[in-house]
């Protein structure tokens, strides 16, 4: 988020869209690969919608062509997009993966979460009893 804000202040919106669109399509392809892997490894699980495997395989063929062409034609834009997305890795390790955090880090994360909720007018549902007015 911080990297996005810096790019928004320095450049224009269309540049940011170009940077992140590569990653967006990369995520689409990984999702389709996950669908195929689940169909192969766990064929018996419940699926509300089941499509012929020819459709996702065809999609992956076109996806791979477009992704490779994008990497070939604009490697700098794709690289910057990857860097923007990889800035979230330290946040993941600090917030999710690191289980035995000191209390000061937990308090900081909780205060940032509360501040973000107030800023965006959202509240994460709590597990307690709802308060009545």
From TrEMBL:
Superkingdom of the organism of origin: Eukaryota
Keyword set includes Transmembrane helix: yes
GO MF annotation terms: L-amino acid transmembrane transporter activity; neutral L-amino acid transmembrane transporter activity
KW Ribosomal protein (keyword) present: no
Residues that span the membrane, as ranges: 16-39, 51-73, 79-98
Keyword entries, A-Z: Membrane, Transmembrane, Transmembrane helix
Gene Ontology biological process terms from the UniProt entry: D-alanine transmembrane transport; D-serine transmembrane transport
PANTHER family: AMINO ACID TRANSPORTER, ASC-TYPE AMINO ACID TRANSPORTER 1
Record protein name field: AAA1 protein
Species: Chroicocephalus maculipennis
Lineage: Eukaryota, Metazoa, Chordata, Craniata, Vertebrata
